[in-house]
Specification:
It is a single chain. This protein has 336 residues and is of the alpha/beta class. The protein folds into two domains: 135 residues, 3-Layer(aba) Sandwich (Rossmann fold), CATH 3.40.50.2000; 175 residues, Rossmann fold (3-Layer(aba) Sandwich). Helices cover 34% and strands 18% of the residues. The longest helix has 14 residues.
Length: 336
């Protein structure tokens, strides 16, 4: 299971890519995935992970299939029991497997080899103990194998049929606002978001669309009457492909350290304003020329150890004033 050499392009027709990470992690791996596809231009890719997240990449990468990483069959890769015939048959077409995970797992890589894949390699999904940006870490790893990683940020191709069929957004400049994330301590206060969106609506004549996912269900009772009274659009629990289409029609995006912030940058929202608190933007910030990072005035931030956030309250984000965020949003809009 050495990672020193990859098989030549002519020897690879099917590649298994194991990436079970969150949406932001998968999108940060976009440049690495694109480099792999360029190295093996005739190969078909099969992604293993969260099907809806992987599905966003279907128009951008040569994905032959997406398999659910939660399927019970994969459990056999984490035991020492004989590998069942059904799993061997599923993995038989692959000449190469690439596993994205925070740390190398020799036993898991070995099991993929035992299941019949002749070349199995590991790629770090994020740094465990350094402040190296995810994209730079993976690019350095792939360069060690002789792959060239393009310097430009990863861009998703959005299904134009979905974009054309977004009835929620009539013509006009729109700001998309995603107030939630995977952790409550990464969220800017909802009242701050309201102050900024109200000012953007009145002063900049922008429409406001709020985006809520499964993790923000508790915000729905508060935002529903607020959005209705202000003429804002509230979209909740949309499929990710639909969210990508909505974002592609927006002029400005405002959100925290979340998967939707990475999605906004990946679909090419012209101005993405990302608000970071306890997590390190040097590691986790989305990539793109229109991305601007704001952090709170706290000498202890970022304080998260990897993904572990130990502070009792996001004081760094609470102290990030709405006036500061509004001024930066207006500057981004004016810069074009």
């Amino acid at each position: 299971m050495s990672s020193a050499n990859l098989p030549p392009p002519a020897a690879v027709k099917d590649i298994l890519i194991w990436h079970q990470g969150a949406l932001g992690d998968l999108l940060l791996a976009g440049p690495a995935l694109a480099a792999i596809s360029r190295r093996y231009p005739q190969a078909r890719l099969t992604g293993v992970g969260h099907p809806e997240r992987w599905g966003l990449l279907a128009s951008t990468l040569p994905l032959a299939a997406v398999w659910d990483g939660g399927e019970a069959l994969w459990a056999h890769l984490f035991t020492e029991a004989p590998i069942p015939k059904k799993l061997r048959q599923r993995l038989a077409p692959f000449q190469l497997a690439l596993v994205f995970s925070p740390g190398i797992r020799p036993g898991f890589l070995a099991r993929l080899g035992q299941a019949g894949i002749p070349s199995v390699h590991w790629i770090p999904s994020f740094p465990e103990d350094t402040r190296e940006p995810v994209a730079a870490l993976q690019a350095r790893h792939l360069r060690g194998w002789g792959l060239k990683v393009a310097p430009q940020p990863f861009r998703l191709k959005v299904d134009q049929a979905l974009v054309d069929g977004v009835p929620e957004l009539p013509p006009g400049p729109w700001v998309a606002v995603a107030p939630g994330s995977g952790h409550p301590l990464k969220n800017w206060p909802l009242g701050h978001y309201y102050e900024v969106t109200r000012a953007l609506a009145w002063q900049q004549q922008m429409g406001v669309v709020w985006l809520l996912g499964p993790g923000e269900a508790a915000l729905f009772p508060y935002l529903r009457p607020l959005a209705a009274s202000q003429g804002h659009v509230l979209l909740s629990l949309l499929p990710l492909a639909r969210v990508a289409a909505v974002l592609s029609r927006c002029r400005l995006y405002l959100g925290g350290d979340s998967g939707l912030t990475h999605l906004a940058a990946a679909v090419g929202v012209p101005a993405v304003l990302a608000l970071f608190g306890p997590t390190d933007p040097q590691v986790w910030a989305p990539q793109g020329a229109g991305v601007k990072i704001l952090t709170g005035p706290c000498s202890s931030a970022p304080c998260a150890q990897g993904r572990e956030i130990s502070c009792p309250a996001p004081q760094c984000l609470e102290d990030l004033a709405p006036q500061t965020v509004l001024a930066e949003a207006v500057a981004l809009l004016r810069s074009g």
